[in-house]
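Suppose you are handed a protein chain with no further information: no name, no annotation, nothing but its sequence. What can you learn? This example shows the usual starting point.
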Amino acid sequence: MTIAAIVNPKSGGGRTAARRDEIAAALNAALGPVELIETTRPGDGETQARAALKRGATHIVAIGGDGTLNEVVNGFFEGGAPVNGDAAFSFAMSGSGGDFRKTFDAPGDVLAAIAALKTTTDRALDIGRVTFIDDAGKEATRYFVNIASFGLSGDVVTRVNDARIAKWFGGPFAFKWHSTMAALRFRPWRVRLTVDDVYDETLALSTAAIANGRFFGGGMMIAPNADTADGLFDVVVIAETKTRAMVARMNDIYVGKHVDHPNVRVIRGRRVVATPADGQAAPVFAERDGEGGMRLPATFDIMPAALTLRI
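A reasonable first move is to predict its three-dimensional structure. Written in structure tokens, the prediction is:
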């Protein structure tokens, strides 16, 4: 068995680079000989993971933030098909957010997470696929392992990824700060949303999350009942609400209480189509796993048991 670790040295504000030797030693202690590959630019995690799989790697470990995980997961696919259907995926979070790990209650410290890989269980992992319009106005397709969303959340991700000062205080602070600022400037988006043949509505909304995992936005439990192996998305739709009420109830999202609110609806399904409605002139921004560069219209499909998660 050949194991490769894709490491983003810039994750965690550069702290991952400072711990490189510790990470390498921990990987070899937990897994035996590991090929350690450092990324050098945005998107390199995808390229390096795909190349490692083609060289014969049967186990890829992603080390970085949620963006690194997203890149590595995309590297498992090429031309709409798996590069190696028998390969396993693991992760050890070393970024500023670390939302995906919370679904599995995995360690937040990178060395503790690597040590936990000494004893693992293989489990099926659903993957999301989204076709959307990119910033150049062209159609593109990407995969996501955790959550994709649009509306207020897409706007927030754009602001967080462009942030400088807020990120100094960590990912959770940056998301909460920019979520509050965006909510104060909130204007609803009009979107037609369909989920399989069970839901079809045009509505004014603040955010819609297409959830495989449970957490996003630096610790918000947006989809408390989501299951990464049930073959379904939990689609959480937060309809238009008054700005003051939105800000006041923001803490509810961190503990999953928002799903009990009357302006929130959860629909479960395999395919979600979101299109700007008539009269929606401004673009509706979207994100997947905290990565922006997306806007509606978009189609989200679940790929049941598309990866083997070794954790």
